[in-house]
Amino acid sequence: MTELYDVAAIGNAIVDVIAPASEDFLTSEGLSKGAMMLIDEARGVDLYSRMAPGVETSGGSAGNTVAGVASFGGRAAYLGKVAKDQLGDVFAHDMRAQGVRFDVAPLGAGPATARCLINVTPDGQRTMCTYLGASTELTADDVDPAIIEAAKIVYLEGYLFDPFEARRAFAKAAGLARANGRQIAITLSDAFVVERHRGALMEFIETQVDIVFANEAEVCALFETPDFDAAVNALASRTAIAAVTRSEQGSVIAAGEARHEIWAAAVDKLVDTTGAGDQYAAGFLYGLANDRSLPVCGQLGSLAAAEVISHYGPRPQASLKALAASRGL
């Protein structure tokens, strides 16, 4: 089959609400700085009512990544579930406007479209409270074989390891990808995901996955060790490519015995770290799908991450294709 997409992603379709917050606000609301916690709809309404004015933008980890792939000039498709409501319409419009194929049928009845309330402290750190809503209603029936079979890389969002039906969707996508010689990538998403699903994640990585994205906390949580190098080595022994980010320390790419340390691209001002890991994955996957070397893939990832942390919101505001060209990448 002719390849139509560089990346096809499956993830939680979420609308982000991003607002500045003080340390005192986090304390008064009982929020753990830098963490992501799941909330119900009532808590979401209550917290939203006390947040500072902010911006609303389509988000979700894998959705942010494919938006980044499109900004690089890549071809991308997205599979995620929204409700047939106002935020669902906003999400679908945003994805298509960014050049990403998104045509999963919306949920006609049931939970509302998911939203993530993100409070950003002056140091740029984001604290997230997420109501998953309709995003957890994704099923294997929503996985279009034609899209999976036509993608060079199938990218899976670790957050979707929670709902049973979504995990079945993962299994279907992985089976289709494997049968058609496609690469499978996964992001571990958050240390809490790793803690909840360590055994299942490890089995999935060892049997199905070619590329794993993680940050330092996640990879150490996966192997239950504070030793970063040991954790990276352990991950590299279980998958073809491990790409592990370390914030301002850049990233490490491990493939077999090879190790590549990638610089963190400089930014004039850190505004909001929301989406940094998502955009790193976007640059890396775009590069990999277009046969770039692993160090260049890492540099493209760092470039995309630097762009997104320089402003509010989890998706690029400048053309990543133009930025890459200006750096000779």
Characterize the structure shown:
With 329 residues, this protein is an alpha/beta fold. The chain has one domain (5-13, 59-112, 134-326): UDP-N-acetylmuramoyl-L-alanine:D-glutamate ligase. It is 40% helix and 22% strand. It is built from twelve helices and 14 strands. The chain has helices at 23-28, 41-50, 61-71, 86-97, 145-149, 164-179, 191-208, 216-222, 228-236, 276-289, 294-308, 320-326; strands at 5-10, 14-20, 36-38, 55-59, 76-79, 100-101, 114-120, 126-131, 151-157, 183-187, 211-215, 241-245, 251-255, 258-262. It has a nine-stranded mixed β-sheet, sandwiched between helices. β7 (114-120) and β8 form a beta hairpin. α3 crosses α10 and α8 (216-222) packs across α9 (228-236). The two termini are 29 Å apart.
CATH H-level homologous superfamily name: Ribokinase
- Overall SS class: alpha/beta
* Element order: H for helix, E for strand: EEHEHEHEHEEEHEHEHEHHEEEHHH
CATH topology descriptor: UDP-N-acetylmuramoyl-L-alanine:D-glutamate ligase
Strand content: 15-25%
Which parts are unreliable, with pLDDT below 50 for 5 consecutive residues or more?
Answer: none
Main-sheet strand order equals: 6-5-1-9-10-11-12-13-14
N- and C-termini, Cα separation? 29 Å
Oligomer: single chain
- pLDDT averaged residue by residue: 93
Quickly give the CATH architecture.
Answer: 3-Layer(aba) Sandwich
Gyration radius, rounded: 18 Å
